[in-house]
Amino acid sequence: MRAVVHDRYGSPEVLRIEEVPVPAPGPGQVLVEIAATSVNLSDWEGLTGSPAYARLGGVRAPRRRVLGSDIAGRVTQVGTGVTGFRPGDEVYGDNLALLGGFAEYAVAAESALAPKPAALTFAQASTLPQAGAIALQGTVGADAGRRVLINGAGGGSGSFAVQLAKRLGAQVTGVDNAHKLDFMRSLGADDVLDHRREDFTRHGPYDLVLDLVAYRSVFAYRRALARGGRYRCAGGTVRALLRVLTVGAVAARVTGRRMGVLVVRQGPASFTRLADLCVAGEVTIHVDRTYALDDVAEALASVGEGRALGKVVVELRR
Ligand SMILES: NC(=O)c1ccc[n+]([C@@H]2O[C@H](COP(=O)([O-])OP(=O)(O)OC[C@H]3O[C@@H](n4cnc5c(N)ncnc54)[C@H](OP(=O)(O)O)[C@@H]3O)[C@@H](O)[C@H]2O)c1
Predict the structure, then answer these.
(1) Spatial contact of 65 and 30, defined as CB atoms under 8 Å apart
(2) Taking the CB of residue 36, how many other CB atoms lie within 10 A of it?
(3) Average confidence (pLDDT) per 10 residues, the chain, 318 residues
(4) Is the CB of 40 within 6 Å of ligand 1?
(5) pTM tops 0.90
(6) What pLDDT is recorded for position 294?
(7) What is the chain's Cα-based Rg?
(8) Which residue in 212, 271, 259, 289 sits closest to 42, CA to CA?
(9) How far apart are CA 194 and CA 212, in angstroms?
């Protein structure tokens, strides 16, 4: 089968297309013929090996040669002990543990997958698992009237988070680069800020801050919070995340605020609710562009370099 492989961390130039054997599903696993795999910032991080948490399990060289975690496709083979799926079933899920989505076939744990809703295309379904889990868990508490700020709101998880927070009745401020301001408004954001020109920690205060790209000092983040407010970060530099977990947690508590790192629960229960909302027409999926398998490097760069509005998808078949 054709797969996009890399043997070292680096820029998209380290990626190449290779003929590799089709993987065999082990116990509790299924083989999926990939129809579409969406790109997440975590794929870019796995390609470049940065931030440092992207090297967990593979400090010098990548542990998995084929990236791609948010897969959608058809089951072609099942391993021993699999009871939930049969060959021919249409599935989707976040295969973060095994990756392999930028290839014609990938092996995934049965427990990572859900049946694909018939009303969604494979490309649409592939956008939901990882970004949806972050957005659903990151917007808990974005209730009616709450002032919510989402940093990185024009990207994959952010585009869902803005819509979910608005749906709950929150007053939403979206922060991203200048190119994404109109896009964030179109998602429903009440206010938008260009992170290259404005410092959101000098705006507010906010009752909830969901930060998808944390890199500032915890004292700056605390300044943006109203009393009783909560800051959660899902990604960013390791230094910023460690500071949030340590100094930030304490500094926030003594002033009646909360700060922490959002460790996202995975598995179908964490994203199928968003799929239901998309099928019902209550949340819109924004696919900026689809790419062929040959163009995975370009697809990854468009996300890693911040050009994509919403989600980017690598589509192999429909
Ligand atoms: N905590 C967990 O359990 C967990 C699980 C999976 C993934 N994650 C993490 O969650 C994060 C979310 O990723 P995603 O896929 O939604 O990313 P994405 O689609 O790339 O969106 C991130 C957005 O943030 C913008 N941005 C970058 N730097 C910024 C800054 N300083 N201020 C404001 N906006 C900025 C980017 O545009 P520009 O680059 O142009 O600025 C981009 O629009 C990733 O870091 C990923 O590793 C966490």
Answers:
(1) no
(2) 25
(3) 97 97 98 98 96 88 95 98 98 97 98 98 98 98 97 97 98 97 98 97 96 95 96 95 94 94 96 98 98 98 94 95
(4) yes
(5) yes
(6) 98
(7) 19
(8) 212
(9) 15
Q: Rounded CA gap, 39 and 102, in Å? A: 9
For the chain, the maximum distance between any two Cα atoms, rounded to a whole number of angstroms, is 57
Residue appearing with tokens 């391993």: 79
Would you say the C-alpha torsion 287, 289, 294, 297 has a positive or negative sign? negative
Q: Is the CB of 306 under 6 A from ligand 1?
A: yes
> How far away, in angstroms, is 78 Cα from ligand 1 center?
34
Q: Which of 47, 128, 134 to mutate to test the pocket of ligand 1 (most atoms within 8 A of CB)?
A: 134
Q: Can you spell out the DSSP letters for 243-288?
A: HIIIIIHHHHHTTT-EEEE-----SGGGTHHHHHHHHTTSS---EE
Q: Which burial class, exposed, middle or buried, applies to 117 when counting CB atoms under 10 A from its CB (0-12, 13-18, 19+)?
A: middle
| Residue 164, both tokens | 């979910």
In the chain, DSSP assigns E strands to 2-5, 16-19, 29-39, 70-78, 90-94, 105-109, 113-115, 147-151, 171-176, 191-194, 206-211, 225-233, 258-261, 287-291, 311-315
254, HSE (Cβ side, Cα atoms, 13 Å): 5
Ligand 1 contacts CB of residue 274 (under 6 A): no
Question: Does the C-beta of 121 come closer than 6 Å to ligand 1?
Answer: no
Specify the pLDDT at position 76: 98
206 - beta bridge partners? 225
Predicted confidence at residue 57, as pLDDT, reads 74
User: Mutation test of ligand 1: which of 202, 212, 245, 265 has the most ligand atoms closer than 8 Å to its C-beta?
Assistant: 212
237 lines ligand 1 (CB under 6 A): no
Query: Going by CA atoms, what residue is nearest to atom 18 of ligand 1?
Result: 155
**Cβ of residue 309 lying under 6 Å from some atom of ligand 1:** no
